[in-house]
Amino acid sequence: AAHHISILAKLPPGSINGLEINQCSLSPLDFKLISRFDHLRLLSLSRCTLADELTIESLDISESVEDLRFAVQEDSQIEKIVCWGARLPSLSFVFCDNRHFNASEISHFANHTHAAFLPVQISADAAELFASLKTIPQLVGLNLVVQADAPDGWWDALPDLKKVEHINWSGGKITSDLLSSMANMPSLRSLVLQGSTVLAEDFPQGLVKLTNLENLVLHHEEAVCDVEDIYAALAKLKRLKSWPGLKSPSRVTLRA
User: Is residue 79 within 8 Å of 105, Cβ to Cβ?
Assistant: First the structure.
């Protein structure tokens, strides 16, 4: 980890493949120092700020960075980091500790040839968000959070994400209608539902439609629907490699 980033100037360009920078005010010169490392794969910017004079055009590009993780002290600076990240030609994975990205921020990744896993928020701009997501050719995974202002029926656009294999899902309510749309995602194999997500009463009826699902994780201690009905639905998902643990299923369910 680097608190005083100037020490990086003393290191050989090929000496670092992972770098964490904590609590720094980053200037164009700092980004120039970072770009020296031609084997750098993971870059983490933790609780950093961007200098006032910093503009995206003034920043050097790190050709080798594949994994970008950041938490900036001011939410208004997120889009600057996103814009810079979208210019990194090898970037594949992005994680932001402050929040997920909106439609405007995701639009910077249009036609990016390596971007594969991005954090997105479903809100009032859902239509614009999905329009941008469809322009990212190698997108295979989403960290997705549903906000309170997400429009009804936004999930009808899910089948347009034809290469997405994994979704880590937070917030909102998972209904049978939503799962029907998810079932039409041709590549979806893995689904993680965080505890902040509500499982609707008809969740089990929709779950049986996810016949291609291989991995399902439910971070729920309880559900609105009957847990026994969930286990009965799981028994019909023949490709599932492991069952999520809610509570012990009955012998009748296990025999099914």
Answer: yes
pTM as predicted: 0.89
Task: Band the pLDDT of 48: cuts 50, 70, 90.
Answer: confident
* Both tokens assigned to 35: 């770009």
Q: Residue type at 245?
A: G
* CB hemisphere CA count around 245 (13 angstroms): 1
Count the helices and strands in the chain (H runs, E runs).
Answer: 8, 12
The residues facing 46 across adjacent strands are 22, 71
Asked if 172 and 148 touch (Cβ cutoff 8 Å), the reply is no
Strand 166-170 relative to strand 93-96, pairing? unpaired
How far is it, in rounded angstroms, from Cα 93 to Cα 89?
12
Sequence-distant (≥ 6) Cβ neighbours of residue 75 within 8 angstroms: 98, 99
Considering only CA atoms, which of 174, 220, 177, 182 is closest in space to residue 199? 174
The tokens describing 217, both together, are 């994780």
CA distance between the termini of the chain:
52
What gap in Å lies between CA 214 and CA 237, rounded to an integer?
8
Closest CA to 185 of 142, 129, 127, 221: 142
pLDDT for 50-90, tens place per residue? 887 788 888 899 999 999 999 987 777 898 899 999 999 99
Whole-number CA gyration radius for the chain: 21
Distance CA 246, CA 222 (A): 7
Q: Is 236 helix (H, G, I), strand (E, B) or coil?
A: coil
Bridge pairing between strands 25-26 and 42-50: parallel
